[in-house]
């Protein structure tokens, strides 16, 4: 528990893509409260609403740190995590040394995938949990294998633990990629894999290696030495926090990272500098928060019944206070304690911003009833492509409707040929028409499938659009819709809106409404 200044505890593209709210460190941030604020917001920076949220009812805004306030660079940070995990597998868990020569493609995996631990498969499914894309290691499963494995069972699989692992955080991308590499390696070099290591054991070993990297501090020691190499600078974070506090709201930080690392990262993000422009490490950033909780052990922190010990941190030394002869005093380190520190009477008065659907959003919403905002960095590229491909997507809908129309005609002709009493000449005419329609259907189907595949690859060469699987919302999108009141690409996008804004969702449409209500 860390105590600070107050209380701290451990149309055309140009119109759509303006440059408001720069986070590259090069432009002056244009926050809502500034004289230049309040203008149209770049679609990539917009906040999207699933459930109505009136910010006037929010008394406290809380933040996660890792991948929320601190956006890590995947090309450096994820590669660092990957390399550390490889070394643990080789030196601690007995895997062959040739793994040390492997490399990591940080662009390959995406969030929302599901790992089938028993079969060594990586799956992408829609919101109904139907598997739409499936790979064994890096080899795509045929449609027949996919249906035979996941579509021909009497009882639907839940695709949950313990047989499956959800890739729902950016931290998980490196381990998913490594798991796929190990699956391929095992299939080709069975004798080189530790004895008894099937696919599920290999996944368990990868998880153990990742945990070892986090426990021994390897990753965070490297980040602490050179934060700029691993973390994106965002000059709008401090103005955002100032604006929220000036509006009368409390702000708090709840992170699983420990105090020493949190202090380094928050110093970097809040821009403490010396007179010559170099960075200095101090505690000035604490002025932007009413409460700071480090080492929170989320998601268990969100349970009222959690009675973890609570300590106060000495800023300078990092030593834990509130101890009695080495034993912690009987304080309950849980969310209930946080509510008291913030003088919160109702959990719906809290907005919590995080990046992890399970650890941050689902638990805080379902268990506590907090309002939630999910940070989805991938959204910037996703909405930009959606805008660029809007004409292509209209054409895809047109082709799909054309397929439906032709198939309806084929079904009617087939029925007529089978059941109607017609002359031989009439049957010959109907048969010719039937054959012509079948040829036309095949042509339109191939055109449609090829166009859809190309559109799919524009978002990602393997997994396609993050929020879609075919024409359905992806499982990831379904979780975002269920558990996040708001979602956006960067936490600092909050700085572009009034702190008293009333966020309203768009109207829900059901299939029977689309052709009736103009969109």
Automatic annotation (TrEMBL):
Belongs to the 5'(3')-deoxyribonucleotidase family. Residues 1-28 are annotated as: Disordered. Pfam families: 5_nucleotid (PF05761). It comes from Prunus persica (Peach). Binds 1 Mg(2+) ion per subunit. Keywords: Coiled coil, Hydrolase, Magnesium, Metal-binding. Residues 12-21 have a biased composition (Polar residues). Mg(2+) binds at residues 64, 355. Its cofactor is Mg(2+). The active site is at 64 (nucleophile), 66 (proton donor). This is 5'-nucleotidase domain-containing protein 4.
